[in-house]
Design brief:
Radius of gyration: 26 Å
Number of domains: 3
Structural class: alpha+beta
Number of helices: 20
Strand content: 5-15%
Length: 553
DNA sequence: CTGACTTGCGCC
DNA sequence: AAAGGGCGCAAGTCAG
C-alpha cells in the first residue's frame, strides 16, 4: 500500500509526496491548502496510508470538510513510542531534529496555537523522520509487535479526532433539571444555592461554629477538632468513620459542592455547545499509553450526570465495557493457562473461586488488585502466596516487573512500549556510609521511593498492555462501524463518541444498533487475537443499547 | 497580586 | 471500604 506524506510548505501550500512500499517516491505534487480535502477524499478511493507530523494539526480541518481517512501514521505519537521502547536502537532515531519531535505538543481548539504563526511543527521534516522510523522498526527485534503498536496508536489518533469532531450528545436541559433538583436554582458565581445554604446552617449549628466555612479544609479541620473529634484530614472517607450528629450534613454538603464545582452550570456553559459535550482526547497522553483528556474532565464524568448524555431522536447509544480487562490481559501476556481457565467464565474472580485458588470472590478481587497495584498490606498481601502458587506465570510476571523497577530498570508492555527511565539518585546509588544526612535522603526515604517505583513498573506492564488491547479494540471497531455502510460523513453514520479506558460509547441510528453490538463484540475478539494470538483468553463485554448513558449500568 | 503547591475527589 | 497504580480539575494555601 502506498503512503502519502503531507508536508506544509507555506501557510497556503501543501506538498503531497507519494511513496511506494520500498520508500521510492512515486509522485510529488503541490497543492493549495484549500484543495487538500478534495485531494484526500479522491485519493482515499484506493488504499493509502497518510503520513503526517501530527493528527491534531491535520485531521480536524479534514473532518470539518466532511472527509474521513482510513489510516494514517502520526509521527508525533510513533516518535514518542519509538523513543522509549527498549526494542529500538536509539542511534537510528538520532538527528538534529530529535529534540523538536520530542517536544512537539498536540494542539486543541482552546489553544491559541490552533493557527500558530510560528508552529514548531513546521520546522520539522516529516519525510526524514518517517524514514528514521522505518529504519528503526526494520532493525528492531520486536518489529512485528512494535509495528502493530505504531499502527494502533496512529489509529487511536484518528478515533480521538473523530470523537471531538462529533461530540458526545448532551442535553443541557436534562442536566439543568438534575442540578436544580439536587442543589436548588442557579445562583450567581460564588453564592451558595438554597440546598447548600440549608446544609450550611445545619453544619454550623451542630458543630457550634457560627462562622465556619466548610470549603476551607483548615477551618473545617479545626472545627472538627474543637468538637472533640480526633481527625487529621477532612476527606469524606475519614469523616464517614466518625460518630457525630453533624457528619451526615457535612458529607452531603461536600458531595453537592463537588457537583456544583466540577459539573455544575459553569461546566455546562463552558463545555456543552449545540447539544454536544466536546472535549479533547489525547492518545498516549499517559506514560502507560492510556489516553488523557483535556477539557471538561472528560475521563471523570461522574455517573451522577451521565443521564444528561442522551442519544438524538431516532438514534441510540451502544455502551460497551470490558469485564475485568486487566487481569485478563495479565493472563494473556503471561500465558498463564490456569488464570485463563478462571477467565473462561464471564466473571474471572468467580472463576478463581471455582478453580480452588481462593475461598471467596472478594478474596479473589482484593488479591488480584493487590497483585497488579502492589498492595502488600492487609488482606491483599495475605492472598499473594496462594495466588502465586496457583497462578505462577501471572503473578511471576508482575513480581518480576516490580523487582526490575526497584532496581531502577525499564520495563515494557507486550507490544514494546517502554516505561520512563527513572531519574534521581535514589534509583541506583548505593548507600554511602558516613554521607552527611542533609545531602542525601534517608535510607528509609530511598527505600520508600524504590518500593514506589516497583509498584509503578508492576502496574505499568498490566495497565500499559491493557491500553494496547483497548487501542486495537477501538481501531478495529472504528473500521467495522464505517463498513456498516450508509452514506454521509462520520457523524451521520454509527460512530464512536466516547472512550473511557475500558468502555466505549457508539452513537448509532436505532435500526443499526444490533449490528453495532455485533461490531463491538467482533472487534473485542479481534483485539484478543492481535495481542495474544491463539492463546485461549477471551474478553467478555457488558453491552447495553440505551437512550441515555445513565441507563447503561 | 501571581504562580506553585497541596488537598480533595471524580473516573478507570 | 480502602488499599495499591494511572489521571484532570477546582479551590484553598502559601511564598515571593
Amino acid at each position: 500500500m502506498n503512503r502519502v506524506v503531507l508536508v506544509r510548505r507555506s501557510e497556503a501550500t501543501v506538498e503531497a509526496r507519494e511513496c511506494s512500499d520500498d520508500g521510492t517516491a512515486v509522485r510529488v505534487r503541490r497543492l493549495p491548502a484549500a484543495d487538500l480535502p478534495g485531494f484526500v477524499r479522491e485519493r482515499e478511493r484506493s488504499p493509502v496510508r497518510w503520513v503526517w507530523d501530527d493528527t491534531t494539526r491535520w485531521y480536524p480541518a479534514l473532518l470539518a470538510a466532511g472527509v474521513r481517512v482510513e489510516r494514517c501514521t502520526d509521527l508525533r505519537l510513533t516518535h514518542a513510542v519509538l523513543r522509549r521502547s527498549p526494542f529500538v536502537d536509539q542511534s537510528l532515531l538520532a538527528d538534529d531534529e530529535t529534540g523538536g519531535w520530542d517536544a512537539l505538543a498536540p494542539v486543541t481548539a482552546t489553544d491559541p496555537a490552533l493557527f500558530p504563526l510560528d508552529d514548531p511543527a513546521d520546522r520539522l521534516d516529516p519525510v526524514a523522520e518517517h524514514e528514521r522510523h522505518q529504519a528503526a522498526l526494520a532493525a528492531s527485534a520486536g518489529r512485528t509487535r512494535l509495528g502493530l503498536l505504531l499502527a494502533a496508536e496512529s489509529s487511536g489518533a484518528l478515533v480521538a479526532a473523530e470523537m471531538t469532531h462529533a461530540g458526545l450528545p448532551w442535553r443541557a436541559d436534562v442536566h439543568e433539571c438534575l442540578l436544580t433538583e439536587l442543589l436548588g436554582p442557579r445562583q450567581k458565581p460564588g453564592q451558595r444555592t438554597a440546598t447548600l445554604e440549608r446544609l450550611l446552617t445545619e453544619i454550623r449549628a451542630t458543630f457550634r461554629a457560627p462562622a465556619l466555612n466548610p470549603d476551607s479544609p483548615g477551618e473545617l479541620l479545626r472545627a472538627l477538632q474543637t468538637a472533640g473529634l480526633t481527625v487529621s484530614d477532612t476527606r469524606s472517607w475519614t469523616l464517614e468513620q466518625l460518630d457525630h450528629p453533624g457528619i451526615p450534613a457535612l458529607l452531603e454538603y461536600k458531595k453537592l459542592t463537588r457537583l456544583l464545582q466540577a459539573n455544575g452550570w459553569t461546566w455546562l456553559d463552558t463545555w456543552v455547545r449545540d447539544g454536544r459535550f466536546r472535549s479533547y482526547f489525547l492518545p498516549g497522553g499517559v506514560v502507560t499509553g492510556r489516553w488523557a483528556s483535556n477539557g471538561g474532565g472528560a475521563l471523570s464524568v461522574p455517573t451522577q450526570v451521565r443521564p444528561a448524555a442522551v442519544a438524538d431522536d431516532g438514534w441510540r447509544f451502544v455502551v460497551a465495557d470490558v469485564a475485568q480487562l486487566e487481569p485478563r490481559v495479565l493472563a494473556g501476556m503471561s500465558a498463564d493457562t490456569a488464570m485463563a481457565e478462571a477467565a473462561r467464565s464471564s466473571d474471572l474472580y468467580q472463576g478463581m473461586v471455582v478453580g480452588g485458588a481462593v475461598a471467596t470472590r472478594a478474596e479473589a478481587k482484593v488479591g488480584m488488585l493487590g497483585a497488579m497495584y502492589g498492595g502488600t498490606r492487609g488482606e491483599s498481601g495475605r492472598m499473594m502466596p496462594r495466588l502465586a502458587r496457583r497462578y505462577p506465570r501471572a503473578i511471576g510476571l508482575v513480581e518480576a516487573a516490580a523487582r526490575a523497577g526497584e532496581r531502577g530498570e525499564v520495563v515494557h508492555t507486550l507490544l514494546g512500549r517502554g516505561s520512563p527511565t527513572p531519574t534521581g539518585a535514589w534509583s541506583e546509588r548505593p548507600v554511602e556510609l558516613g554521607e552527611p544526612p542533609d545531602e542525601v535522603d534517608s535510607r528509609e526515604e530511598r527505600d520508600r521511593h524504590r518500593r514506589a517505583r516497583g509498584r509503578f513498573t508492576r502496574n505499568f506492564v498490566v495497565q500499559g498492555t491493557g491500553a494496547e488491547w483497548t487501542l486495537c479494540w477501538l481501531a478495529d471497531l472504528r473500521n467495522r462501524l464505517w463498513r456498516l455502510g450508509g452514506t454521509g460523513t462520520v457523524s451521520q453514520r454509527p460512530h464512536l463518541v466516547f472512550f473511557l479506558h475500558d468502555e466505549v460509547l457508539v452513537h448509532t441510528p436505532e435500526h443499526l444498533a444490533d449490528e453495532v453490538v455485533e461490531a463491538v463484540r467482533g472487534a473485542a475478539a479481534e483485539a484478543g487475537r492481535l495481542l495474544f494470538g491463539a492463546f485461549p483468553i477471551d474478553f467478555p463485554l457488558d453491552v447495553a443499547v440505551v437512550g441515555s448513558w445513565g441507563d447503561a449500568d
